[in-house]
Amino acid sequence: MRHRKPPPAVSDPTRKIIHVDMDAFYASVEQRDDPGLRGRPVVVAWRGARSVVCAASYEARQFGVRSAMPAVRAERLCPQAVFVPPDFVRYRAVSLSVRAIFARHTDLVEPLSLDEAYLDVTAPKTALASATAIAEHIRSAIRDETRLTASAGVAPNKFLAKIASDWRKPDGLFVIRPRDAQAFLDPLPVARLPGVGKVMDAKLEALGLRTVGQLRDYPAQALEERFGRWGRRLAELAHGIDETAVVPDRPTLQVSSEDTFARDLRLAELEPEIRRLAESTWAAYLRETGRVARTIVLKLKTSDFRTLTRSVTPAQLPASAQALADVACALRTRVDDGDATRYRLVGVALTGLVDAHDATAGQADLFGE
């Protein structure tokens, strides 16, 4: 079998990418604002059997507490933890302050969430001598202006920069220079590559591929034949290649709200919850100035964790939260799952958001035009 030549290592060494990741962001904001929480294991989560951990301080992480973990498990692991309900309005305000710091150095900022972002500083707005100097300057400004810490990774592409930012957490900086990229990658477990979860890791283990270096030596065409386009992507990552651009201000494609109940509910009992969530979704939608939605989605999760969605794309979208709730409630009639089914979660979403000038006349009516 004739194999393709492997891709060249780090295809564009001239790019300068920074990944900035705030350290235990939500928990750190809580500890900053409440001196009584400093040095203590803090878990940002609502208490309850259905709640999950939004964030954990480093003191809590020492006990094995992690984000997305069920709150009841976090409490078992760390009985002395202080549980603090999340305050996303406050976290969002801090995030905007951090992004203002980024904007002093480049307009090419791609936020991934409230607490992390990519920056392309190949052509920076400042006269700082290097990407490393910019990263240091950003971390210092975050510390001085927000009284929080951030870790940063500097590399020739996004993939490497994200790995680097995690390398010396918390409050650290790590630089992967183009000439050092392959030597850095080769000894890493393949599980460190983005997209390699437990299932893919097991498949690679079956091929005898445990390190990135072993994956790099494996024929790229053989990977592609076995795993499709993802196999080709694996080969590129093993060679330190990631051509993905830093894309600022990605447009919002959907707004949604969902909630997990304290107890499972029947379909007929969901209307108050749907109406409450429709209010929240509508409020978020009104903040998307100049964007128009196309589709209304009702999301349900059953007590046995099956996820159901029902949607409608009307010729003219509703013009109020109440009208949105009416449509979402009506979508329940399209759920044929038996009277015995109980639901643990419901969500209401507006999806398919497009710029207003691209929307149809019917959609423009949503804004009262």
Automatic annotation (TrEMBL):
Q: What are the protein's UniProt keywords?
A: Cytoplasm, DNA damage, DNA repair, DNA replication, DNA-binding, DNA-directed DNA polymerase, Magnesium, Metal-binding, Mutator protein, Nucleotidyltransferase, Transferase
User: Where does the protein end up?
Assistant: Cytoplasm
Q: What class of enzyme is it?
A: transferase
| Alphabetical list of CDD domains matching this protein | PolY_Pol_IV_kappa (cd03586)
Q: Which Pfam families match?
A: IMS, IMS_C, IMS_HHH_1
Give the co-factor note: Binds 2 magnesium ions per subunit.
According to its UniProt entry, one GO biological process term is: error-prone translesion synthesis
Any idea where the UmuC domain is? 17-197
> Where would you find the membrane-spanning parts of this chain?
none
A GO term, aspect molecular function: damaged DNA binding
Residues involved in Mg(2+) binding? D21, D115
Q: EC number(s) per UniProt?
A: 2.7.7.7
Provide GO CC annotations from the record: cytosol
Which reaction(s) does the protein catalyse, per the Swiss-Prot or TrEMBL entry?
A: DNA(n) + a 2'-deoxyribonucleoside 5'-triphosphate = DNA(n+1) + diphosphate
Site feature Substrate discrimination, where? Y26
Cofactor dependence is on:
Mg(2+)
Active-site residues from the entry: E116
Domain of life from the UniProt record? Bacteria
Q: Does the keyword DNA damage apply?
A: yes
What NCBIfam families does the database record attribute to this sequence?
Answer: PRK02406.1
Its subunit composition reads: Monomer.
Q: Which family does it belong to?
A: Belongs to the DNA polymerase type-Y family.
The UniProt function text for this chain reads: Poorly processive, error-prone DNA polymerase involved in untargeted mutagenesis. Copies undamaged DNA at stalled replication forks, which arise in vivo from mismatched or misaligned primer ends. These misaligned primers can be extended by PolIV. Exhibits no 3'-5' exonuclease (proofreading) activity. May be involved in translesional synthesis, in conjunction with the beta clamp from PolIII.
- State the protein's name: DNA polymerase IV
Q: Which organism is it from?
A: Tahibacter soli
What would be the name of the gene that encodes this protein?
Answer: dinB
